[in-house]
Amino acid sequence: MTRVTQMIILLVVLLSAATGQSVSSGHAVFVASSGAQIELDTRTGTLKTPRSHEVRLQDCSDKFQVCLTDHRGFAFAYFRACNDAGFGNFKLLRFPPKTVSVLHNSDVWMVFDASPNYLFHYAYTKGIVGIYLGPTASFDFRSVLRDRNLHLGSLDATEYRLTGPNTVAACNAGSDVSAQPPTQQSLPATNTLLHESGHADPPKPK
Questions:
Q1: What are the strands, taking DSSP E only, across the chain?
Q2: DSSP label at 49?
Q3: C-alpha distances out from residue 155 to 107, 120, 121, 141, 146, Å
Q4: Domain locations in the chain?
Q5: DSSP class of residue 157?
Q6: Beta strands 115-123 and 127-133: pairing type?
Q7: Is the whole-model pTM more than 0.85?
Q8: Which residues pair with 41 in a beta bridge?
Q9: pLDDT tens profile 58-104
């Protein structure tokens, strides 16, 4: 390895550490407090969960959206460009989401009619950072939309959190949007439950 190559590699590592950016790889592992894992890999088109082991995923994405489904209860779709949420064109997504909660205009918790056994925690510019798996195969996360007293902390036992820097389905924020993730302390105080038929106000540039 030449000295120039070594310097380039070092520069890339230093820049990555300094910016704290995630690596968009299409492969991510989500871990529950019990140690159980969900592995989502868009490169190989596979999904592994404690319940389904390994299933094939169809990439139903286009230029407008990132879309994934196994046609058997797992489905996700969201905008490629973060700013597209500002136009409210959720019905144009193959799987329009129902919004359970919004935090700081940067984090959204969503459930899909085609995927009621899963609740997705989506962070703008970071993608899917958490997946909640129903405690039973028949559990429907849409039911929590009717609970005005819901605190997301009550669902912690069903949450699988992203580990490592890799991301899946991260939207492109462009140069005008800056989203900060919530803190654990701020979650109970700022949790805002939305009604079943509504959507969250789209994230606004700061």
A1: 23-24, 27-32, 37-41, 46-49, 53-56, 58-59, 65-69, 75-79, 97-103, 107-112, 115-123, 127-133, 159-163, 166-167, 192-193
A2: E
A3: 16, 12, 12, 10, 15
A4: 22-193
A5: G
A6: antiparallel
A7: no
A8: 27, 46
A9: 999 999 999 999 999 999 999 999 888 777 788 889 999 998 888 86
